[in-house]
Amino acid sequence: MCEHVEELEGSELGTKDYWESSYSREIKNYRDHGDVGEVWFDEDSQNRIICWIAKQDETIKADDSIIDLGCGNGMMLIELAREGYTKLTGIDYSPKAIELAKAICKDQNLAIDYKVVDLLSESEVIALGLFKVVHDKGTYDAISLYPEDAKTMRNLYIAHVHRMLADDGLFILTSCNWTESELVSSFGELFRLQTVIPTPTFKFGGKVGSVVTSVVFVKNASK
Q: What is the pTM assigned to this prediction?
């Protein structure tokens, strides 16, 4: 049985309005100065994930389907494209985020499929199909900060990720709000932990902790 996971306090970071406003500013900055914007909460985490994926050459092939959930400005997928991966999809519920991602991608002369998709909509998730790699850095965190009934939103997210992940697929999740044990508890009904991607640690008060947690899940075997 999964242990109880205490919900996070709601925040504007869990609202669509916040992200639409943020990406509107980033679109202007990109048009005016060529600035692609920030990588939310940790660019080093993004680079660690890309390096980890590149090392899984016996499991993840260059033409395997990879989707980035809450892709924002799309830089994660742009870096993967530069590494030779060819079947890349980025989704975000913010139309402004997708507008920015498409603009950057076009200027980089890369082929990446960006779509406006609400991860909490079952029909929209079904329409996406299946993926060998599902990646999320920060989107589960944002959903967890939804101001109203975040638990229901989290459970929808978990079910929908399970639906879009191929049976032999990998779900790579990086969080700055949840610990490894909390993630394993929340996802444990539908997923099992395959590995933990090492992240920098700190020591405080005699205890060792991490600023971020990166885990790789696979689907639980069907009963």
A: 0.87
How far is residue 140's CA from residue 142's CA, in Å, rounded to a whole number?
5
Pick the CATH number of 12-50+59-219 from 3.50.50.60, 1.10.10.10, 3.40.50.150, 2.102.10.10: 3.40.50.150
pLDDT digits 0-9 by tens, 101-116: 999 999 999 999 999 9
Q: Which tens digits make up the pLDDT trace of 198-213?
A: 987 655 555 545 578 9
Quote the CA–CA distance of 17 and 173 in Å, as a whole number: 24
* Secondary structure of residue 71 in the 3-state scheme: coil
Maximum Cα interatomic distance, the chain, rounded to a whole number of Å: 55
d(CA 73, CA 71): 6
